[in-house]
Specification:
Layout lengths: L2 H10 L4 H21 L3 H17 L10 H19 L10 H4 L2 H15 L3 H12 L4 H8 L3 H20 L9
Helix pairs in contact: 1-2, 2-3, 2-4, 3-4, 4-8, 7-9, 8-9
Protein name: RNA polymerase sigma factor
Family: Belongs to the sigma-70 factor family. ECF subfamily.
Keywords: DNA-binding, Sigma factor, Transcription, Transcription regulation
Amino acid sequence: MTREANLLKKIEQGDLTYLDELIACYYPDIFRYCLWHTENRQTAEDAAQETFLRFVRYFDRMAYRNKVKAYLYKIAANVCIDMRTKRRSEELPENLSMRERGYEEAEDEADFLRLVRNLPQHQQELVILRFGQDLTLRECAQVTGLPLRTVQSRLRSALKKIERQLRKGGKENEYE
């Protein structure tokens, strides 16, 4: 039995102390995912916290019993969409969190985001899950609810578009 399965079993038996351990296990990945989908660190923290609040609130109805990671990413995606919809009219400041971790890393992440944001939305999500979050293709399929072959095809297409964009000197909005 995996560590995750053990934690879930103990939580189901009513020992909520293991809930903290489960959250601590996934929080860094979910926070980083939310950071990709939001404009600043504070919004990403809010989104990650809301993700885990929803996870706890609906734990007893959890559809992904053996796929907690995929379930958390699905919740996080929905939370980020909800937050984006609510804040669409607000003007957000430039991503300040990128400057906190070091200039080179921030520059790399900004380049990655710039390239990804020029892709169609359905490809953006897959590229962020696969390369931003280091999920396997199978996990990407679970999170998005797409067949594995569709995930592979869309990722291949997205990577070809990024490659063409890089060859042309990274022109912005090439695909919009």
